[in-house]
Write a structure and sequence with these properties.
The complex is a heterodimer of chains A (about 160) and B (about 170). Chain A has about 160 residues and is of the alpha+beta class. In chain A, a hairpin with a 5-residue loop joins β1 and β2. Chain A is globular. In chain A, about 60% of the residues are buried. By secondary structure, chain B is of the alpha+beta class. In chain B, about 45% of the residues lie in helices and about 15% in strands. Chain B contains six helices and four strands, in the order βααββαβααα. In chain B, α1 packs antiparallel against α2 and α2 runs antiparallel to α3. The radius of gyration of chain B is 17 Å and the shape is globular. Chain B starts with a strand and ends with a helix. The model of chain B has no long low-confidence stretch (mean pLDDT about 90). Classes of the chains: A alpha+beta (about 160), B alpha+beta (about 170). Chains A and B meet through β1, β2, β3, β4 and β5 of A and β1, α1, α2, β2 and β3 of B. β7 of chain A pairs antiparallel with β1 of chain B.
Amino acid sequence: TVGAVAVDLEGNVAAATSTGGLTGKRWGRIGDSPVIGAGTYADNRGCAVSATGAGEYFIRVGVAHEICAQIRFRFQQRLEEAQASVPLDSEGIPEYYVHASEFGLEASDIQEIADGVIGEMESLGGSGGVIVATPWGTGTYSFNTPGMYRGMASSEAGANVAIY
Amino acid sequence: GRWTLVIHGGAGVIERDRLTAQQDADIRAALSHALETGSAVLRDGGSSLDAVEAAIRELEDDPHFNAGRGAVFTYDGAIEHDASIMDGSTRAAGAITGTSHTRHPVTLARRVMENSPHVFLRGLGADQFSVEQGLEQVENSWFETEERRRQLDEMLAREAEGLSAYDVDLKYG
């Protein structure tokens, strides 16, 4: 399985995943890769996620959407704590990507959420991982199995490729 | 503004120490190239949607990865692809499953998102939609590699010993 997530200069996120599935799959088996919310999800209010691994478990947990929703809710919680609201741009669209870190949503929060959801998936017996990109530029990985190749590039940190 | 691109690619091995130096170098080179292709889109002010599609199209063409050319075999010895894409600015999404002839399944998923009223197409219908969209078609055999054929043969042999396909496949990423 291969996947990619990105945020562009406008703060818009996108996710995509592509796969051949499981070796020797039968009976029309479908894993999580084409299932929106399980293997792929993107929402400017939270993040973009692409997953790889034991698809049945990613579907049951709804991994990609779960990570995105938790990030969105945590950001909302931080806003409420600060008694603030997200400013709107000239088209009336909330500028999440500009103001998220301003209200304390850091890379460590994103990592904690992604690790938590992967941990939940693992607790059911699944294995694999995700890549995540947020509207404010955070990129991260969370994997619980070895043999996963990944790469990241950004306007601020250059590019690197690694194997988990 | 900032841009960021993250990619992953299962290469069909479970641990680093099972890789040859050449395999490792080839896989890293392929990922680096895909990363640069997507980065160039973002660096030039392009959209995140275009960047993820461009990066994945490269990985689909590379036989090291379980996608596009180099995808694993089904039980019946064919190759069937799944793909999806989603735009975070609109929450528009497109997905396909069980296609057999589209060279770049991620592009077909994007066409479902942008040129159909639907989100998810499957099998022969998705193949038909792909042709109608004018996407590049190839014979199913074009996707085959000797290594994936060997992995299917191994899986079938081990299944005969009592292991399930699922147990055997996990090592293929």
